[in-house]
User: What shape does this take?
Amino acid sequence: MKRILGITLLSAVCSLPLLAGTNTQVFLLPSDVKIGDTQVPGGHCTVAWTQPSGSQVRLTIKTEDRKTITVPARVVEEKQPNVAVQTFVVNGVTYLEEFDTTKARFIVQDPPNGK
Assistant: This one.
């Protein structure tokens, strides 16, 4: 009986990422970037987003070093040809501007002064 319960729990836990994966995307940050006031290291990150409320969403960004950042974003639902990130530079600092998925574009809010 314990074995069946263990197998059931294990399969339920393993399927949770599949259920949560509908609003997630893995991105590659080519270099260190700032998101708002937070420095994020380059490398792979996973971005999850909430269901849109109008054109607003909350992005939760989890980096390779397990750091989690949550930021507001504006969603533009238009097909993108590629999964990509867009950045810009202000005073020598690279900031993250948007995440593009094949289904939508997420524009990070709170750009720094000068943008």
Notes: The chain has one domain: 23-108. Confidence is low (pLDDT under 50) at residues 1-21. Helices lie at 2-20. The first helix runs from residue 2 to 20.
